[in-house]
Amino acid sequence: MNIQQLEYIIAVDNFRHFARAAEACSVTQPTLSMMIQRLEDELDVKIFDRFKHPVEPTAVGQNIIKQARALLRQFDELKEIASSEHKTVKGSFRLGIIPTIASYLVPVLLQKHRDDCQGIELTLKESTTNNLINEILTGKLDGGILAGPLNNPELSEIPLYYEKFYAYVSPDDKAYAEKEIDLDTVDVDRIWLLENEHCLRKQIEYLCRLKEKKAESKGLKYEAGSIETLIHVVDYNSGITIIPEMHAIGLDEERQDNLRSLKNRIAVREVNLAVSGNYVRRAMLDVILNIVRSSVPKSMQNPDLKKFAVGIFND
Known about the structure:
By secondary structure, the chain is of the alpha/beta class.
């Protein structure tokens, strides 16, 4: 038994496909299959049921893979100890980012990585919150930039920054004349929302008390897939939407005139870097934290803003 074999069975468990696992491990499929077969022979068990499509671990295989993940974490910890002795940080970090953050953060992250962290291989992936959490917990990703707090006992969440929520109002809407928007009095039918899979939608529903007002609504007219789409919808169809500060900063001068603060409240989105609770590469984590924090305004990194954070799960 060796580390390589453990990496191979974890890859197959992640991808549920031998060819894709082999590609991810940069080996041929026959090599990967042979190494896993040798491990099964050594342990005298079948780790995978190869007759199922996609491939599935057997009952005993699930326990072996779980222990393999724990052993590889310990192996990473040994490498981390050695790396800290040499005061160098090298290696790779697979980072997931939710779409409502990726659109403005990824371009800056790529630039920061190119200029400051050439010794680290950074892989970025955009996906929804639930998908990213699953991939962090199964080892497919090292971490994720997510809206929080998620309050998941299996994750460790490190606050990165806090961005205020703003109303984006169409010049054709009656609320455009107001200096601030009172969300308690906004008509439900004038609010445009993202699709259900976005955690930002849940926060907007809470801010606008949409679930309480649902009975008054005539029904949602459209659910957008991105903040940029929401803004275009408001521009052409009147109404209001709610956007986070980082996206508001990136608007052109004409659209900046459509922004309004929220009346009688401060509400922020907490953005965290989430990793598995037993993630051990602390020096690497510090590098990633520094890259992200250097990509956002210092004013958003004030920990006192946390008390104004709108949670993802408010029910």
